[in-house]
Structure formats: C-alpha cells, structure tokens
Amino acid sequence: MIHYARYDIHNQSSKMVAMHPFDTVLSAMQLESSQFIHLCGHAPWAISFDSGGQARLVVFAKGGGWFTRPGETPKRLARGDCLIIKQGVEGTLGDAPHREHVPCWQVVDRVTGERVDFGGDGESCEFFSTLFTFDHAAGEPLSALLPDVVHVAMAEREAGRMLSVLEQIGAEEAQNDLGSNYVVQRLLDVLFIHAIRTWAASEGNVSDGWLAGLTHRQLSGTLRRIHGDLAHSWTVEELAKEAGMSRSSFAVLFKSVVGVPPLSYVASWRIYRAKLLLAAGRTISEAAEQTGYGTDIALSRAFKATTGVAPGQWRRTRLGASKPEANTAASIA
Fold first, then answer.
1. CATH 1.10.10.60 matches 4-27+209-332
2. pLDDT in tens, 52-73
C-alpha cells in the first residue's frame, strides 16, 4: 500500500497516513454550518436567498421547485436534489419560475417552530437549507472548480442517502441527547461533502483541473504521489515514469486533463500549502522548507509571482483578519 503524507502544522513534522487529496482539502477548509432550517412552501410560494459571505446548501426532501437567477435559465429541482450556492450569490426558489418572492430572513423571522410553513394553500414542498463558512484560502482549489450555483441532480440511490442523513438530523434534534448538536453539525458536513462528490462524479461537470486528474485512470496515482510529497524535486521524467508513460506522452496527457503542465501544477499546490502554513503562523523559512523551496528567498519569489504580494504581507493580512474563518486547519493538502 502506498501512504501519502499529511502534515500537522502544529507539530511542524509530517506523519504518513493514507489520505486522498480531496479529503485533505476538505479537512483544511474547516467547514462550519449554521442556520439549519426546515422549510415547507405551499403553492404559490417563492423565497429569495442572499447568503452574503457564506455558502448555502439546499436539499429538497419532498416535492420539487425551481431556482432562478436574473438572466439565467431556471433550474428544475426534484426530491433529493441539492443546490450549493456560493457566497455572495443571490437567487430565488419557488414552486414556479419568476414568482413574486419574499426574503428568506423575513419568512424565518416571523414564524417559530421546528418547521417553517409559508406561501399559499396549495401543494407543498419541503426543503432544508443551511449556511456554511470555511477557510477561503484552504478552499481555493475546490471553489475554483465550482460554478456560482452547483445543481446536483441526484439519482434515486444518492437521493436516498441524502434523505437518510436528513432523517438522522431530525432524530438528533428531536432527542436532544448529549452531543446532539455536535452530531448534527457533522451530519451537515456529510450532506455538503456528499453533494460535492456526487456533482464531481457526474459526467461533464469536471472537464479539467485537479479533480479530473484524480479520477483519471492513468493520472490519478501520479497526482496522489505529487500531493503526498509536494516538497520533492519532481521532474517531468520522474512523473512520467510514475505513470508508466513516455515523457512527451505524459506531458501532453497531463495538460489536456488537468489544464496545466505538470510542473506548473506542482508549483501551484506548493503555493497553496505555503499559504496555509503562513496563515497558521509559520515563518517564511518554515514554509519554504515544507514546500520544497528550501530558502525564504526562493519561496518569496515564487509566492509573489503567483499571488502578486510578498508572503510576509499575505501572512500579516491573514493573521490580522477578524473573521473566524481566518484560522486555518491543522492538516493541509
């Protein structure tokens, strides 16, 4: 079995554990859920969302609806379907496109109880909504791949899994046992992650990028090797050998699938790891050592070329941020 490195930035040492790069990015993001609400719209109904600086997950549990944004084709949602709406994105959910809507906060504010009913007296539709905050620097690799609104159309089997998790959340909230709040938070994480991976696994959603590479038959092992030892002085020849290909064939395939040349890919992930180390308070020299640059001068040059700012300035900005999500995760990709 091949083991890949996971780095503990608190201990400044690395320990070898088997961990998929996708898992380490999710771990570094430090997902935190809030404002989990159960909504039941009765036709005619429409509700608008503005998540501000948070991402939103919506899961349809009964019936269906439509999600609309100005200038875009409305999206039809069925039972089990999900929406992941990026921070700062506005939209409207309703039983039909272009209904007159009310703001979400207005509906939730004026009704109390476990389930929020609103709308008219027609056919009902139940859905759940929760907000997520996360470390934006840690989430960059994933956020860059996602459209503003991710529509996850679930097959029956996947929909059943999502609804099963919702049932568990409902049971925990009803029982209110020791640790119930913690369990609910983790189950909400499960909903988010399951929605992301179902979307990523659907044909045509991830045409290139690191997720495409990690699911590619010939490249997945090589990418995992890269992520397992980013500080290694990788060469195209060495990576091609890992993939069992010639240098030229590997370089062409890698760029066509991942979207960038192999060594550019390595460099971008080194900078990503350096950001997380700096955000955790590590010195530039420590970050340089753990990302393969060796010296603070080499890291500073590469960091500024990629981000436009010096690493010290980037770290001061991050550490000076007052938002909770400015704190980075303990383990990084």
1. yes
2. 788 999 999 999 999 999 888 9
Out of 3.40.50.720, 3.30.365.10, 3.30.40.10, 2.60.120.280, the CATH code matching 34-133+146-201 is 2.60.120.280
Contact 325, 30 (CB under 8 A): yes
Neighbouring residues of 175: CB distance < 8 A, sequence distance ≥ 6: none
In the sheet that holds 75-77, the strands lie side by side as 75-77, 65-68, 90-94, 46-50, 102-103
Angle at 325 between CA 300 and CA 132, to 5 degrees: 130
285-319 confidence digits (pLDDT tens): 999 999 999 999 999 999 999 999 999 898 888 77
What does the alpha-carbon distance between residue 162 and residue 36 come to, in Å, rounded to a whole number? 15
Supply angle C-alpha 149, 155, 158, rounded to 5. Answer: 85
